[in-house]
Amino acid sequence: MKLACVVGAATKPGRLGNAIAFLSEVASAASDSVDVIDLALTKVEICDGRPSDQYSQETQNTIKTIGSADSVIFGSPVYRATYPGVLKNLLDHLPVAALKDKPVGIIAMAAGFHHYLGVDSHMRFVLAWFGALTLPNSVYLTNEDFTDGKLSSEQAKKDLQDLISTTRQFYLALREKEYGPTPLAAKPW
């Protein structure tokens, strides 16, 4: 399985990046190919409606990496009870085909539990627009899952391992199939 993992934060790699790194190691150990896109390090231009070939090469490569993946996992900090603008900007760049009929997982990271469904519910709305096959459960991480910025919670590690396992199961069961109806975003109007 070719997996794209997105660290959807504007700040330099921190706890969320460490969690995605752990997840990537688990996937790589199972012979999956993993591309990590860290939005703090990858400069995706502001989406302004131009055709994709008119954006920078880095922006085009990012779109292509996600579009060519078999499965995608989006990691996001909770920012104002939802995901941050840098992740929304990336999603605005993606054509429907980049996520349609693909298994997609969600990881959310916050200081505590008070916004545990913010990222999950908002991401599910957007992923439905693409026709993505969003996994039934997401992973929610808090400060308590880390020690000195490193993922230390055994339960959090198990949750991330389960997310990869479920992503792989979805991919193997659903690959090379199309699921309808066509998302509204892909219909010719």
Layout of strands and helices, then pairs:
Elements: E1 2-7, H1 15-29, E2 33-38, H2 57-68, E3 71-77, H3 85-93, E4 103-110, H4 118-130, E5 133-134, E6 139-142, E7 146-147, E8 150-151, H5 154-174
Parallel strand pairs: 1-2, 1-3, 3-4, 4-5, 4-6
Antiparallel strand pairs: 7-8
Account of the protein in words:
This protein is α/β, with parallel strands linked by helices. It has a single domain, classed as Rossmann fold. Helices cover 37% and strands 20% of the residues. It contains five helices and eight strands; from the N terminus they run E-H-E-H-E-H-E-H-E-E-E-E-H. It has helices spanning 15-29, 57-68, 85-93, 118-130, 154-174, and strands spanning 2-7, 33-38, 71-77, 103-110, 133-134, 139-142, 146-147, 150-151. The strands form two sheets. Strands 1, 2, 3, 4, 5 and 6 form a six-stranded parallel beta sheet that branches. It has a two-stranded antiparallel ribbon with strand order 7-8. A hairpin with a 2-residue loop joins strand 7 and strand 8 (150-151). Helix 1 (15-29) packs across helix 5. The longest helix is centred in the last third of the chain and has 21 residues, at 154-174. The chain starts with a strand and ends in a 15-residue tail after the last helix. The mean pLDDT is 93.
